[in-house]
């Protein structure tokens, strides 16, 4: 069967990026073929990578994406999220086992900023009340441009660039029980290598974890989650104070099967974002990282 979809982004004018991210095709937009009784599903276009599908759900909920998703300090690109110019295959389920494979160009390559590309896959196995998943994604040729002050001066900055290769591995376990309790726990191993430009041979590592426990009773769900980015390592040396974490609580009420009301409270703590320009040197620059914050929010979600 031939399938296709065009999906827009968030178009509310109160969202500061609504013009850039609210257009048709900004989210899952693809053509493809589907037959779950034989080959499964093949899509070509803009879709989630197999790795990111697990990172996004369940790993980033409730409200843990600042740390678990787009957070962290490792160089290059640890994974793509929703990627254009992608071909993805999702298998049917074979006795509890299924898999996903994908290949595509990176976001930066799509706009001509570098020559990046990615490929990856995931496997899932259902056994009793548990779902065990594993995923891998490699990103190649990701360009980083950095600016920093010349040692001993404050009147001008030096700009340089380098190219990164990244490998990211993920292990995930989920469970659902008849008493209303469910959980997930995930762990990511991430490494990066500079292949050209400034500081060739530089190696970075930063691992991360995310876990949550849920309790469903009647029309309510209560959820407590925790996520953490561990300290960044550069050429084997740990940079103290570069870790981040978030603890989040959410209470959700199902108005009907397609609408929910929710209350969420979370504490997000972000560590230092300063890293050395070259491994082992004192000259440093700052990579982007959001600020620490506390937040209480209420909201409504509706599926149509």
Automatic annotation (TrEMBL):
> Which PANTHER family does this entry report, sorted A to Z?
OUTER MEMBRANE PORIN F-RELATED, PROTEIN YDDL-RELATED
Q: Which CDD domains match?
A: gram_neg_porins
One Gene Ontology CC term in the entry? cell outer membrane
Domain (Porin) spans 20-266
Lineage, opening ranks: Bacteria, Pseudomonadati, Pseudomonadota, Gammaproteobacteria, Vibrionales
Membrane topology annotation: Multi-pass membrane protein
The organism encoding this protein is Vibrio maritimus
UniProt keywords, alphabetically: Membrane, Signal
Database matches in Pfam families? Porin_4
Domain of life, per UniProt, equals: Bacteria
- Key word Repressor present: no
* Name of the featured protein: Arginine/ornithine antiporter ArcD
What Gene Ontology molecular-function terms does this entry list?
porin activity
Localization? Cell outer membrane
């Amino acid at each position: 069967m031939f399938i296709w979809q065009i999906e827009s982004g968030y178009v509310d004018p109160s969202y500061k990026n609504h013009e850039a991210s609210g257009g048709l095709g900004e989210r899952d937009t693809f053509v493809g073929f589907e037959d779950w009784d034989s080959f499964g599903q093949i899509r070509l276009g803009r879709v989630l990578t197999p790795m990111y599908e697990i990172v996004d759900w369940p790993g980033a909920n409730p409200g843990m994406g600042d740390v678990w998703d787009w957070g962290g300090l490792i160089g290059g690109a640890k994974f793509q999220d929703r990627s254009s110019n992608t071909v993805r295959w999702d298998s049917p389920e074979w006795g509890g086992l299924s898999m996903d494979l994908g290949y595509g160009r990176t976001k930066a390559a799509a706009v001509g900023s570098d020559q990046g590309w990615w490929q990856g896959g995931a496997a899932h196995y259902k056994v009793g009340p548990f779902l065990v998943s594993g995923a891998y994604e490699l990103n190649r040729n990701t360009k980083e441009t950095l600016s920093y002050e010349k040692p001993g001066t404050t009147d001008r900055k030096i700009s340089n660039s380098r190219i990164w290769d990244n490998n990211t591995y993920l292990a995930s376990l989920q469970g659902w029980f008849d008493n209303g309790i469910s959980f997930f726990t995930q762990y990511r191993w991430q490494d990066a290598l500079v292949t050209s430009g400034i500081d060739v041979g530089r190696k970075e590592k930063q691992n991360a974890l995310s876990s949550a426990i849920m309790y469903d009773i009647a029309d309510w769900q209560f959820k407590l989650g925790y996520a953490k980015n561990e300290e960044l390592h550069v050429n084997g040396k740990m940079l103290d104070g570069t870790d981040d974490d978030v603890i989040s609580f959410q209470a959700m009420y199902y108005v009907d099967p397609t609408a929910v009301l929710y209350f969420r409270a979370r504490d997000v703590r972000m560590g230092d974002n300063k890293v050395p320009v070259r491994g082992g040197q004192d000259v440093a620059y700052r990579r982007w990282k959001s600020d620490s914050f506390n937040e209480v929010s209420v909201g409504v979600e509706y599926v149509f």
